[in-house]
Design goal:
Pfam families: 2-Hacid_dh, 2-Hacid_dh_C. This protein has 2 domains: 128 residues, Rossmann fold, CATH 3.40.50; 191 residues, Rossmann fold (3-Layer(aba) Sandwich), CATH 3.40.50.720. 34% of the residues lie in helices and 15% in strands. It has 12 helices and 13 strands. The strands form 2 sheets. A 7-stranded parallel β-sheet has the order 8-7-6-9-10-11-12, with helices on both faces. Strands 2-1-3-4-5-13 form a 6-stranded mixed β-sheet. Helix 1 packs parallel to helix 12 and helix 4 crosses helix 6. The mean pLDDT is 95.
Length: 331
Amino acid sequence: MEILAFGVQADEKPLLERAFAGGHEVRSVSVFLDEDTAPIAAGYETVSSSVNCDLSHRVLQILASGGTRMIAQRSTGFNNIDLKVAERLGLTVARVSAYSPYSVAEFAWTLAMAVNRRIVRAASRTRDFDFRLDGLMGRDFHGRTAGVFGTGKIGEAFTRIAHGFGMRLLGWDIAENPACVELGMKYVPKEQLLAESDLVSLHVPLMPQTQHLIDAAALRTMKDDAVLVNSSRGGLIDSEALVGELRAGRFTGVGLDVYESEAGLFYLDKSLEAIEDDTLARLVTFPNVLVTSHQAYYTVDAVHQIIDTTVENVLDYRAGRRSENVLVPRS
């Protein structure tokens, strides 16, 4: 069976093709799946997608009419897939339900440390042989408060690092994680977490209930000198409201590995084009904001796990097996 994989990064391509070698042939393309590129999947029973691919109603219709019967998403998130339409069209859909939580948690801390200690500005200066310390003063995280939204596997890994820094721990989730409680975390209402935290990190999935979890009101509740980090999903933060608060001079730093309108931008080279997204263009101009291109997961350990699970999902589909990774079962 031939598999067409969309949105494959250069580093990912040999790993993906090697993993399927001897069993199935994989054609890897760098373009993302959308309404314009979906027709090239004609004749491929299985399509593999990435998180920034568009699997909305029309795209799924094109895939189904071209003979596609299985979609293997190479990510944990699946908010880009219309599951109801997929089920109606008889498409099996599977995802990667888990991979190294340390990859994302460690990167979230990388963002937090970078904006707190002004690393980007410092590195830029030293390249110009400007070795002044003016404007580079940060703060100790030790003894301060970390607020963690979402204390699943990634949130727990983030919390363990915060505990190692000697921070007071506050958590918010639909259920308490005993491991986090054992570390000393206190679960509190959203408003209390925002008001008391010096560092706020987001680790919840994007759902209708969490869309703009950090809205204008939430941002106003936060401390003026807080650090805000989002390595989960861009839609958790109201970006326009965030720009408004930053323009008012608030927050020590903001680290964003995700952006709510990143599709069509992230993972692509737009350096020679005019960016039409005014909100993103404004965000990257703030000296206390660091934006990266959804790379928190991008370690060799996590990518290997993602690919291995994708292979298992395809094999399970072929064998008629169902696992916890299946979002829409084979009809």
